[in-house]
Amino acid sequence: MVNTKIIRQRESLPVFPYRQEIIDAIKNEPLLVVIGETGSGKTTQIPQYMLESFPEFRLIGVTQPRRIAAITVANRVSEEHGCRLGEDIGYCIRFDDCTSPKTRLKYMTDGVLLREATIDSRLGHYDAIIVDEAHERTLETDVLFGLLKETHRLRPELKILVMSATLNVEKFSDFFNSCPIFVIPGRTHDVAINHHRDAKISSLKSTFVQRSVETSLYIHTQEPPGDILVFLTGQNEIEKACRDLEDLDRNLNYKPDVKYYEDVKGLVIYPIYATLETMEQKAIFDDPPRYTRKVVFATNVAQTYDPTTGMDALLVVPISQAAATQRAGRAGRTASGQAFRLYSRESYEQLEPDTVPEIQRSSLLGTVLSLKKMGINDIINFEFIDPPDPAMVKNALKQLFLLEAIDDTGKLTAMGNEMSIFPLSPFLSRVLIASARQYECSREVLIIVAMLSVEEIFISPRNAEKQMDADEKRKEFYHPSGDHMMLLNIFEKFRDNGYSRDWCRDKYFNYRALSMAKSIRDQLKELMEKHDLPLVSCRLKNYQVKDDGGRQRKKRRNSYQDVKYNVEKMLESFSTSYYINLAKRHPHRPVFYHYASATGPGSESIDSNSSLLALHISPTSALHPDNKVVRVDDLDWVTYHSVLYTNKALMKVVSKVKLEWVQERLGLFKKLAAANLDASCSKSKSENNMQDDTNDDNDNKVNSTMVDVQEVKNQDDEKKRKRLEVIEAARQRALARKSITDQD
DNA sequence: GAGCACTGC
Question: Shortest CA–C1' contact from A424: which nucleotide?
Fold first, then answer.
């Protein structure tokens, strides 16, 4: 049955007049770059043209950066094509494979294709690969670029298309052997851009929320009807902006003395950020009531990875010119519009032209492990379109060595091979394997690992009363050993309550996060079964439910022995990785110091001082002094899952450990100093010599780090404390300064 | 002076 309406729709798309030209180009060229704006139809049409024109193609793969895009596009295309989703046309995302042996066109996330590549780096199932939304430059897209270039050498018959929305794509073409670029002319509307007369970005500081609210109100009262979209940096700012604008709106009396009040008689204000419930997110697409203007406050900030500490840090940084232009372009999607920048034209011109690709600002630990698994040993010389910072690569190699995933020559070990089975941070993969092969507690550790792989579990209500209620309710999950066991408690209670959304709401837990943890647990369990990793419980045999009130509880406080599980075994499993994040308490203060920073590039650069950065226990931790679960002086050694920089360095997910658990593994730091991890990199001799120097250096640093920690332990005079504080403050300032391009 | 944007396997 031919649906004429669908045909008419397909033919009205900007890409349609170029159908034959595109097909010819694909026929003649193994590599092709296609440019087309959002809405040009490139994502839905070009794969269909290929399906229709190349019947000999058994499978065409199209990657998308986001799950939702893969699903909706596949849906749309199967409808246009007149087949049921999952038959000729399907999609594949994590936890949801909607394809069949019949499938010839497969939409997927770039992460899925990357996982497939770790199993078969030739991508032998595919006759064509299309990397869509390449301009987003996700970590996965960038790695795929390098792999596909290699695959092209091995399989020149494989058709490779790179599709992008930006015009600045010579780079893609240059990378793929100067391949042709096909441009689909777009349909866009004019956007007028207004800059602030003189404000510098650096001078906005904390006033940007207030300024954005004032500007919104100005637009509302002075400009013709039309919605307003405001970009801010985080949830807090967004909520404050919503409140402030609502207050201002309430005080407006919509008298007919201003030109546009007859058309615009009120405001509807929406916040949008990821942790909002899906329903609340969808609300922003509702049509506002008549005569009202819609204002949306949305998020967007950048993540940075600090190579001097090897830690993730969330810092507010100025956007790039490209990102500013893209944001402004949002105003012209459906009609002409205006963009208001709260900073001057000069400030705009001083911004970085392009957004730094994700690969240059994130941890490469998992990426390097995947590449090694694919047989790519020489990571430094791997063909990246924009190579990552070599210091980041070296850091990743060191960490992988400390996890025993690679040996002292940089080669993948049997352990590393097994670790790459799991779609997890290599730290957590290592823990999971230890719990299965060594400590006999994988059934429980599996849960904790899943809980550590999801977004924030705790909801922090803004309302002070609710916040107190939330804090109170959290207490029932506390465990004297720390937060890992708390996570296990939470998941088990969630399970015992039938994975209920209402239960989550009552306890102030993020239902979406806990459901995701359940899915991940199930997936990991399947992978363990498939690869013969034993699933063993450490539940104690003689465990009986006994309620003898306070005495039992008091006894538990002084021991790691849970009445129910062998907690030591679980925490020992975690220590196989997290000895790298071992911290010792200051003798007289509730702060901690990292045991040996030899892992991070911190050891390479400045100082052994990085080990003296004061680490605080996060207020959300069961072990935080205010929570009174344990006395601070009962804490000696702890390991932490991650560090968050606020104005302090906060350890997140902290558990109490015994030094004897990690003593043996600490020896790996020593071995690291002697290892030559990028020996496989065929660098010039002089660079290799430099390499050796660095390694010698590391050896010294490891020692000095240990001496320093020892000093902290033995000495405790006021001067020393002062010195540490000065160092810490300097570090924090340096960290903040690095992120701001404008001078004060 | 307390708190973290977004993806994804």
Answer: B9
A404-415 per-position pLDDT tens digit: 999 999 999 999
Residues 6+ apart with CB under 8 A from A195: A341, A343, A344, A345, A348
Same domain, A196 and A178: no
Query: Tell me, what CATH number does A250's domain have?
Result: 3.40.50.300
Closest residue (Cα, C1') to B2: A619
Judge whether A413 and A422 are in contact, CB under 8 Å.
no
Q: Coil, strand or helix: which one is A125? A: coil
A109 touches strand B (CB under 7 A): yes
CA of A448 to C1' of B9 (A): 18
CA atoms within 13 A on the CB side of A541: 0
* A606 within some domain: yes
Strand B within 7 A of A48 CB? no
Looking at the C1' of nucleotide B1, which residue has the nearest alpha carbon? A647
Residue A181 clears pLDDT 50, i.e. is over it: yes
The answer on A292 and A166 residing in a single domain is: no
Query: Are A529 and A430 within one domain?
Result: yes
| Per-residue flag: A630 CB under 7 A of strand B | no
CA–CA dist A448, A439 (Å, integer): 15
Q: Is residue A668 part of a domain?
A: yes
Contact status, residue A444 vs residue A451, Cβ threshold 8 Å: no
pLDDT at position A26 is 95
Q: Is the CB of A300 under 7 A from strand B?
A: yes
- Asked if residue A454 and residue A340 are part of one domain, the reply reads no
Banded model confidence at residue A562, pLDDT cuts 50, 70, 90? low
Q: How far is the CA of A625 from the C1' of B1 (A)?
A: 19
Mean pLDDT of A399-406: 94
Q: Which nucleotides of B are covered by protein (CB under 7 A)?
A: 1-9
Residue A49 lies in domain: 4-183
- Å from the A300 CA to the B5 C1': 5
Tell me how many domains chain A contains: 4
DSSP 8-state code for residue A411: P
Please check whether residues A620 and A707 belong to one and the same domain: yes
Pick A653 or A314 by higher pLDDT.
A653
| Nearest residue, CA→C1' of B7 | A66
Is A275 near strand B, with its CB below 7 A from some atom of it? Answer: yes
CA–C1' gap, A110 and B9, in angstroms: 9
Chain centre to alpha carbon of residue A97: 23
